[in-house]
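Course assignment 3, question 2. Fill in each field.
Student: A.L.
Task: Predict the tertiary structure for the chain below.
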Amino acid sequence: MTPNDRMRTAFLFPGQGSQVVGMGRDVADRVAQAAAIYEKSNTLLGFDLRKLCFEGPSERLNTTAMSQPAIFVTSIAILSAMKTHPATAGITPDVCAGLSLGEYTALYAAGAIGFEECLHLVHIRGQAMQAAADATAGGMVSLIGLDEEKVQALCHEAAQGELLQPANFNCPAQIVISGAKAACDRAEVLAAKYGAMKAVRLEVAGAFHTPMMAPAAEALDNALSACRFSDPSQVRVMSNASADCYPSAKAIRPGLVRQLTSPVLWQRCIEKLLEDGVGRFYEIGPGKVLTGLMRRINRRVEIVNISNMGSLSGLAHEAESRK
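Answer field:
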């Protein structure tokens, strides 16, 4: 492996749960290109997403139907601001990855799909997942301190004939389980028996990344049938469902459909990127969730969080000082 291989760069994009009222506002106030992203989104969606991101209310922003397009648009706005600044415009990825929803942002950033088409997909995805969640009684629980074997055993005991399975392998000793609400209730009670340090019920609409999302996957598949993806050859894109890069444009549609009903293999995605020689990571979008997960996967890895104008200005100042 050459030195250049060891310093490959990855852009990471956050998923649902990273939203917060006010996100993107400082970037849009300072960078015209970022502001234009919000204005274009308002026109395409037919409602004021900009105001929802900047002013809330949080109850509406936190719904699955609204948070997904809001996080996607905010991430793209921050990315556009990063590309605009002379000191950071030259930072380009060799590979992109995103957590669940963030995989769509990654596909856009890699040039595999255009903005309008991607926003349309994200909007449909959020609505379809909200509808599937509303039609079933599901939930998710984050388990801290258990390995995969113990999580599987816990799910088996707590399920009692209902659906309950691992849904997010986020980082060592942090696995999210998902399934029927009653099964999640039982899992919370049983978690201590298996040695969990903590069991946290997530504020989500339903059992994401399980077969309970099959109706959403069907709706998404129908929307994807009208999309045309480009081969992600220049900038590769990681698939959450396989923990490997998409080999061709043809593989993207089934990968995105599968993602809705299959576990998100985030830890394995990052480990694969490290094995492939990625040495520098940028988390681009609201919040610091992926930066926190990275610290638990590998503390020695260089990761830069770009979630607001302050972090972007700091990165630009650092880049200029190196010249």
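Instructor remarks: Strands lie at 8-13, 95-98, 138-144, 164-171, 174-180, 198-201, 236-239, 244-245, 278-284, 302-306. Residues 64-84 form the longest helix (21 residues).
Grade: pending
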